[in-house]
Amino acid sequence: MGEDLELNFEEYALWSIIAIAVISLAYAVFLIRQMLKESEGTEKMKRVSNAIRAGANAYLNRQFKAIASIILILAVALYLTAQDGGIGFGRATAFVVGAIFSGTIGYVGMNTATRANVRVANAAKRSLGEALRIAYRSGAVVGMLTNGLGLLGSVVIFMIYRDRAYEVLLGFGFGGTLLALFMRVGGGIYTKAADIGADLVGKIEKNIPEDDPRNAAVIADLVGDNVGDCAGMAADIFESYEVTIVSAMILGFAAFGHMGVIFPLLVRGIGVFSSIIGTYAVRVRSETENAFDAIKRGFNLSAVLSIIGFAVVAVYYANDIRFFWATLAGIVLAIMINYTTEHFTSIEKDLVGELAKSTKTGAATTILTGLAIGLENSVWAVIIISATIAASAVIFQSAGALAIAYGVSLTGIGMLTLTGNTIAMDVFGPICDNANGIGEMAKIDRKARRRLASLDAVGNTTKAITKGIAIGSAVIAAVSLFQSFTQMTGLAGIRVDRVDPLVFVGFLIGGALPFMFCSLIIRSVGRAANLIVEEVRRQFREVKGLWNGTVEPDYARVVDICTISAQKELIALGAIALLTPIAIGLLLHEEALGGFLAGAILSAQLLAVFMATAGGAWDNAKKMIEDGLYGGKGSDAHKASIVGDTVGDPLKDTAGPALNPMIKVINLVSLLIAPLIIANEQMTPQVIIAIIALVAAILIAIWYSKKEAYIGVDESILRRR
Predict the structure, then answer these.
(1) Are 117 and 197 in contact (CB under 8 A)?
(2) Per-residue pLDDT tens over the stretch 302-324
(3) Which of 181, 459, 528, 531 could make an SS bond with 429 (beta carbons 3.0 to 4.6 A apart)?
(4) What is the rounded distance in angstroms from the CA atom of residue 168 to the CA atom of residue 171?
(5) Across the chain, what does the average pLDDT equal?
(6) What does the pLDDT average to over 15-42?
(7) What is the full DSSP assignment across 88-125?
(8) pLDDT tens digits for 217-276?
(9) Cβ distance 534 to 557 under 8 Å?
(10) For the chain, what is the total number of helices (H) and then of strands (E)?
């Protein structure tokens, strides 16, 4: 009788979670409708906003076409990885659905942001509070979509496949992760090529404002904020949301049966309601209050409500208070990342003031100070994450290794429970950046521009925070997947120690991979930025009437260059992430592959936090000077700050964020190919040929991505319109 009641409750719980997912999606639609009712302002503001939206949609449409064939090919490959045809079909279908969900969230989120930007700019004419409300709630749309689709996909797969759901869930997680990698890389290259090109010519060479309409790269720059920080980050957080659920469900089923699967889903359901309430708590108390304080209040309220909910579910459903402590550790981790990132990147804190002061003595000291800030925060972030993982181990230490692994996965569940708030903070950044640009191009009144500038500065901090949370969640998810790698594939006896030389070799190669990946991405940004610089210079030089403002520049030409340049880099970088773990596994076997994964997780965490922090600090130091500090705009300090910001741009918005999906791609690929590696441990001719082909493909991809960042304009790109 007791078992029947438990099964009935679990069925009701699953259907309740589906209902919560639908509520989350409905709330997203409600927020969109609410935002669309706001006024768009003047015709000039509308024209700028429409140009941004058209460019952003053109980019994403081209990107989806470019990767559609890859998704289909990999779906077939996933079908073949399963010995059971039914599971193979489910895994392949789930992979495609995960990719579609990830792309949908990015697409809808980006379009919401490109419609909200002009409304935020117009609302700033009335009050800071109205502008903040529209920007933050528009960002919450993406968070609610992530909650809804992530829960819906996971629960439906579990209800269909039950005890074998973990085999299909791998496909669901892999689909979201792979698409996030492409969107992060492509969007990051686009946005920073445009940003760097606009800044180098506009601010330094021509000494004109950031969003001066005479600069041909301005629209591309504003488009880039959306394809990088809206579409890219939305897909990134969604795949973290997916993968933490997948790893928790896999480990939970192995350790605690159905209860271990249901608990993380209930926790995520609680997060939906907490985020909705927290969204409405974000409002400034006066026109002089820092908007970030209002955002923190909303986040903290959601955190408190979630913690109460965790306790109730842990005590009355799981009957195990340890579940509560593990998820609480995840919430604490998110809060600690919030506060440490704010400390290192916020305009209100001393470190950014110190960085701004360093601009008085030139670009070299500016860069050195920013590097020091980024390096320090990467250490604190590792300590915080390590303490969280250690706490989970202590909480479940009496229950065995499998329960400890599950406890670590629960910290990821707790950390991303407030996904609605987290993504709202991230998308808030580009919305305000765009609004500020629209305000400058449309020449709205000075008071409104000051409000927008303050929101833009807060947006830099919130973006840095969400990047910290994204990489933190990526590490937790990767550690959980690593545990799954040893458990679900029968490799529990895997040796990952310092004695086996091959394990150490794998560890070293894994640690080096993020460095190579970042190097290639930064080269790609430099290559694309060179094209933009030359095109903007050409238009200033050749277009008559442009400098006087009587003729508009050819914005579309620069948008095309950014779009085509970014798309050319996608496949090679994606191939490196996909093929490297397969090559390592076949060549060095599963023990070394475990070391490879461990090395990649560690170095990716350090690099990603370093780059996000240094870049955010440089950006906000520049904004402090543009507000009048140390001579203001046009001063030598300002020029030094622009150099720092330009160096930091590809770090914080391209290379660093791309590491999040990269480490999860290599972990998921390792999970999927583990049976193949075990079955092919002998160096047969077929295995040798496969290894040679894989290594050759990786080297070709590296060669392609290392092509010289040519200073001149590639006329073949310019002609493709």
Answers:
(1) no
(2) 989 999 998 999 998 888 899 99
(3) 459
(4) 5
(5) 83
(6) 91
(7) HHHHHHHHHHHHHHHHHHHHHHHHHHHHHHHHHHHHTT
(8) 887 877 777 777 777 777 777 777 877 887 788 788 878 888 888 898 899 889 889 988
(9) no
(10) 21, 0
Contact present, 533 and 526 (Cβ < 8 Å): no
First to last CA, the chain: 69
Range of the domain at 400: 2-719
**pLDDT at res. 713:** 41
The per-residue b/e assignment along 90-113, b for 16 or more CB within 10 angstroms, e otherwise, is: bbbbbbbbbbbbbbbbbbbbbbbb
The pLDDT of residue 485: 65
Give the confidence band of 369 by pLDDT, cuts at 50, 70, 90: very high
Answering whether pTM is above 0.90, one says no
Which residue is associated with the tokens 């079955």? 679
CA geometry: angle 359, 362, 367, nearest 5 deg: 70
CA–chain centroid gap for 212, Å, is 29
DSSP code per residue over 185-249: HHHHHHHHHHHHHHIIIIIIIS---TT-TT-TTHHHHHHHHHIIIIIIHHHHHHHHHHHHHHHHH
Is there a contact between 312 and 324 (Cβ–Cβ < 8 Å)?
no
Tokens 């496909």 correspond to 171
The answer to whether residue 515 scores a pLDDT higher than 50 is yes
pLDDT digits (tens, 9 = 90+) for 558-606: 888 887 877 777 778 888 888 999 899 888 887 888 888 889 988 988 9
Q: What is the pLDDT of residue 33?
A: 92
When divided into structural domains, the chain yields a total of 1
Structure tokens at 478: 């990767």
Mean pLDDT across the stretch 120-126? 90
Tokens 């890859």 locate to 70
3 state SS for 642-703:
HHHHHHHHHHHHHHHHHHHHHHHHHHHHHHHHHHHHHHCCCCCHHHHHHHHHHHHHHHHHHH
3-state secondary structure of 304: helix
